[in-house]
UniProtKB/TrEMBL annotation:
Part of the ABC transporter FtsEX involved in cellular division. Important for assembly or stability of the septal ring. This is Cell division ATP-binding protein FtsE. The keyword Cell cycle applies. Residues 3-226 form the ABC transporter domain. GO terms for cellular component: plasma membrane. SUPFAM superfamilies: P-loop containing nucleoside triphosphate hydrolases. GO terms for molecular function: ATP binding; ATP hydrolysis activity; transmembrane transporter activity. It comes from Nonlabens xylanidelens. It comes from the Bacteria.
């Protein structure tokens, strides 16, 4: 078992036939918190989609949570995603069911069977994001920040080795963004590895960590200057 949850070597990222990122080399170790920055259209989302199997890896070598991305078969993608937690900008909660039922839906889809085990797991993840008393509510009854907390709880359900967060504060006001970052920081302190795409440089200054930048078709590490 490697100490890296993600390792890419000489990877080119394509959207259909368009080359988006070239010669990507990066490694993320267990327990790291890594930012991914860059302008809109610079390739952040395309890279993340490649990592969770939405875009096939056609050129280069890549492993993520012990899956070989260059040899990933379609039937393996659900298994890969069970070892990843993906958090989106727009929450992607099912609006016609309660928070508890949203989370139960994911557990059932990923092979959980026992009612008691599912209820206990749901309670644990809601507690981790400070939403233990909100399970009976529907998404529309929650604020944006609360919905994102639920999305993070959902990402934690199967104890993922890596959490991929694509602009998780993109739809939130500055104060709520800080609250969500506090949740992510705490999860990281508990041992979860996090890769987070963001436009929010204020958050990076407030919570400095390893930062990768997509620019001009390439990815490189940014050395943060002391503020």
């Amino acid at each position: 078992m490697s100490d890296h949850v993600l390792s890419l070597s000489k990877v080119d990222v394509f959207q259909k036939d368009n080359l988006i990122l070239k010669n990507v080399n990066l490694e993320i170790g267990k327990g790291e918190f890594v930012y991914l920055i860059g302008k809109t259209g610079s390739g952040k989302s395309s890279l993340m989609k490649t990592l969770y199997g939405d875009i096939p890896l056609k050129k280069g070598e890549g492993t993520i949570v012990d899956y070989d991305l260059s040899r990933l078969r379609e039937k393996e993608i659900p298994h890969l995603r069970r070892k990843l937690g993906v958090v989106f900008q727009d929450f992607k909660l099912l609006t016609d069911r309660t928070i508890n039922d949203n989370l139960k839906f994911v557990l059932k889809a990923t092979g959980w069977k026992g009612k008691k085990e599912m209820s206990t797991r749901i309670e644990v993840v809601l507690d981790k994001v400070g939403m233990k008393t909100k399970g009976f509510k529907y998404p529309h009854e929650l604020s944006g920040g609360e919905q994102q907390r639920i999305a993070i709880a959902r990402a934690l359900l199967n104890e993922p080795e890596l959490i991929i967060a694509d602009e998780p504060t993109g739809n939130l006001d500055p104060q709520t963004s800080v609250e969500i970052m506090e949740v992510l920081q705490q999860i990281n302190k508990n041992g979860n590895t996090i890769l987070m795409a963001t436009h929010d440089y204020a958050l990076i200054l407030k919570y400095p960590s390893k930062t990768l930048k997509c620019d001009d078709g390439e990815i490189f590490e940014v050395v943060q200057k002391a503020v």
